[in-house]
Amino acid sequence: MIWLTITATIAGCSGGNEAIVPDSEPANSTLTALSAPTTLEAATFRVDEHIVVDPGGGPTAVSNAVIRGERDRYIAQAEAGQTMTILVSSVETNAVAQVVGPDGSVLLEAAEEASFALPASGGYQIIIGSSRGNASYTLTLTIT
C-alpha cells in the first residue's frame, strides 16, 4: 500500500490541513510531498495526548476509534536503545500505526504489529489511522 499526503487549504484559515491516507482514497485535492516534521506539525488529530509507559512495567493499552480520514496521535517518552513494541488490534483488521521519532523521521509506516530498537531519546509519536472505513482499535504499547 502506498500512502499519500493530501494538502487542502480551507478558506478563512491560515495554513492548510494535511492528512496521510491510503492511495485508494478518492481525492479532489492537490497532492504535495511534505517532510515528516512539517506534515505532523500542521496535521489535525482527533485525539492528541501523551501516554505514560512504565519501562519494564508491562504494556499500556488505549482503546478508541477513528473514522475514515481521521487520525489519533499518542506521544510516549523513551530512551535511546530501548525497544518499543506496538500492537494495533481492530475487529476488521483495518487500524494501522505510524511511528515518528523525536527528530521527525518515520520509523514505522502502516503496521499492525512491530518491535524495534529506538534510535534516540525523546518523544515518539504513535499515529493511528484506518486503512479503510471506520476503525475501532486497541493500541498496546510496551517499552523495555
Tell me what you see in this structure.
- It is a single chain.
- With 144 residues, the chain is mainly beta.
- It has 1 helix and 12 strands; from the N terminus they run E-E-E-H-E-E-E-E-E-E-E-E-E.
- The protein has one helix at residues 36-42; strands at residues 3-8, 17-22, 30-31, 47-50, 60-66, 71-78, 83-90, 95-100, 106-111, 113-117, 122-130, 135-143.
- The strands form 3 sheets. Strands 4-6-11-8-9 form a 5-stranded mixed sheet, with no helix packed on it. It has a 4-stranded antiparallel sheet with strand order 5-12-7-10, with no helix packed on it. Strands 2-1-3 form a 3-stranded antiparallel sheet, with helices on one face.
- Strand 1 (3-8) and strand 2 (17-22) form a beta hairpin.
- The radius of gyration is 15 Å and the shape is globular.
Tell me the span between the first and last alpha carbons. 30 Å
What is the number of helices?
1
Shape: globular
Average residue pLDDT? 76
Structural class: mainly beta
How do the strands of the widest beta sheet line up side by side?
A: 4-6-11-8-9
Secondary structure: number of strands: 12
Radius of gyration: 15 Å
**What is the percent of helical residues?**
under 10%
Largest sheet: 5 strands, mixed
Strand content: over 45%
What order do the helices and strands follow? EEEHEEEEEEEEE
Poorly predicted regions are: 1-39
SSE blueprint and pairings:
Elements: E1 3-8, E2 17-22, E3 30-31, H1 36-42, E4 47-50, E5 60-66, E6 71-78, E7 83-90, E8 95-100, E9 106-111, E10 113-117, E11 122-130, E12 135-143
Parallel strand pairs: 4-6
Antiparallel strand pairs: 1-2, 1-3, 5-12, 6-11, 7-10, 7-12, 8-9, 8-11
